[in-house]
Amino acid sequence: MSSPAPHSPAASAPPLVAPAIALDDVWLKFEVRYYRQRLTLRGAALSALSAALRPHRQRKAREFWALRGLTLSVPEGEILGVVGPNGAGKSTLLRVIAGIYAADRGEVRTRGTVATLLSLGAGFDLRRPGRENIRKNATLLGLSRRDIEDRLGAIIDMAGLGDFIDAPVATYSSGMRARLGFSIAIHADPDVLLIDEAIGAGDEKFRSRVGSIFDQLSHDRKTVVFATHNIGVLRAPCTRALWLDHGQVKLDGPPAEVAEAYLAASRAAS
Fold first, then answer.
1. Do residues 226 and 236 make contact, with C-beta atoms less than 8 angstroms apart?
2. Secondary structure of the chain: what % helix, strand, coil (to 5)?
3. Exposed, middle or buried, 220 (CB in 10 Å: 0-12/13-18/19+)?
4. CB of 24 closer than 8 Å to CB of 71
5. How far apart are CA 174 and CA 180, in angstroms?
6. Cα 65 to Cα 68: distance, rounded to the nearest angstrom
7. Strands of 240-245's sheet, edge to edge?
8. Phi, psi of 208 (to 5 degrees)
9. Other C-beta atoms within 10 Å of 203: how many?
C-alpha cells in the first residue's frame, strides 16, 4: 500500500492578492526657496542692484520633508480615513498615491483605475453650468461619451442640485460643488477613490448619504482613502483610520480608537 503524498502548504494556501494601494518607505520633500530679508532702505537698494547684475543668482533653499518613511498597505474594500493637523501630510499622501507627486525615495503601487477629488471645485469651469462640467470631468476620468450620457441622470440625482444643474458652477456653494464633484467621481466607477476634505464641505444629509455610498463601495471591493478634519466623518463611514503627524504615522487602527486618541491630543495641545 502506497503512503499518502506529503501535505503541501503551498498547494492548499489561498492565492495572495496584491493590495489596492501599497507604499514602501516613501519619502517626499519640498524645497522652500527664499531671499534673506533686508530691513533697511540701503539694504533693499543693494539687493535690487545685486539682482539686476546677477539675475540668475541661486536662491537659498530649505528642505521640508512632507512624508517621512511612510509604509502603508490598503487592501481592496478598505475605507481609510486619514486625519491630522494642517501640514501633517494628508493631502501630500493622496497626491503621492494618485501619482501627482513622485516620491524622492521608496515605492508607491496602486492596482486598478484611480479617481481623485483632491481640491474642492478643481477641474470645474466656473462659467459653465453643472451639466457641461459633468461631461467634461467625466471624460477626463476616462468615461466614454455613451457612458456619460447613460450615467448623466444618476450623477445629477446624486448631486441633488435640482434646477441649479443648469446654472454656472460659479453660483454654487462649496457644499454644492462638493456634491457634484463627488457624484462625478463615484460614477466613474474607479477601483481606488481618493478624496481630500470634500466630504466635510457637505451638510449632514450629504455626509449621511456618503456613508451609505461608502458601504456599497466597500461591499463591491472598491477602495477609498479620504483626508478630513471632521472626526464625525472619520468615525461614521470608514473601516480603518490613520493619524498622520509631520509626515509619519502616529496611529493606525480602528476608527473609534484613532479618533479618541487624536481628540485627546488636540485637547491637550490647546
1. no
2. 40, 25, 35
3. exposed
4. yes
5. 10
6. 6
7. 114-117, 192-196, 223-227, 79-83, 240-245, 248-253
8. -65, -40
9. 11
Q: Is the distance from CB of 117 to CB of 196 less than 8 angstroms?
A: yes
Three-class SS state of 73: strand
Owner of C-alpha cell 434646477: 163
Q: At what angle do helices 174-187 and 204-219 cross, to 10 degrees?
A: 10
pTM for the predicted model, two decimal places: 0.79
CA distance linking residue 155 with residue 133, whole number of Å:
11
The tens digit of pLDDT for each residue in 36-88 reads 555 556 665 666 666 666 655 555 668 889 999 999 999 999 999 999 998 99
pLDDT tier for residue 2 given thresholds of 50, 70 and 90: very low
Could you give all domains of the chain from N- to C-terminal order, each with its CATH number? Answer: 21-52+61-269 (3.40.50.300)
β-strands 114-117, 192-196 pairing: parallel
